Amino acid sequence: MSRIEYKVDAKQKLDDFFMESALPAEEIAAISKHVNDILEHPVMAGWFNRDWKIKAEAMVLLPGGQQKRIDRIMIGKARTVIVDYKTGSRKPVDKEQVEQYAAVLTRMGYPNVQAYLVYLADLSVEEVISKSNLSLF
């Protein structure tokens, strides 16, 4: 997903990935379907249009000097959306991680930061931070 910024680019990005990886046809079909399901998802579909400036796998410096990589940051005129993709089961640390990312981006001056966790196994989307419940303190 880190290669796909916008829905219109998805097919070419997937084709490039498949050329590099030499996967069997059944895996290519499964991955293509999964990516299409994400691009058509009722919540996520809007994250792949050209209204956003995209930063994929963006590095941030957390308090204490630790560096972390945010899977996807979408910067719009009125809000900023963080997405962290998860492949495993839900853990409390997942929520804490994106809360930390949102706090850092808010301190950096990004507008109305929202944060989501996306669990890829079942394509569930969990809103962790809405622009209305984030505090700088």
CATH class value of the largest domain: Alpha Beta
How many angstroms separate the termini? 33 Å
Task: Write the CATH fold name of the largest domain.
Answer: Lambda Exonuclease, Chain A
The number of helical runs is: 3
Mean pLDDT: 91
Strand content bin: 25-35%
Spans of at least 5 consecutive residues with low confidence:
none
> Main beta sheet: strand number and arrangement?
5 strands, mixed
Q: Identify the overall geometry.
A: globular
Radius of gyration: 16 Å
- How helix-rich are the residues, as a percent range? 25-40%
Descriptive overview:
- With 137 residues, the chain is α+β, with helices and mostly antiparallel strands.
- The chain has two domains: 7-40; 51-129, Lambda Exonuclease, Chain A (Alpha-Beta Complex).
- The chain contains three helices and five strands; from the N terminus they run ααβββαββ.
- The longest helix is centred in the N-terminal third of the chain and has 16 residues, at 25-40.
- The model has no long low-confidence stretch (mean pLDDT 91).
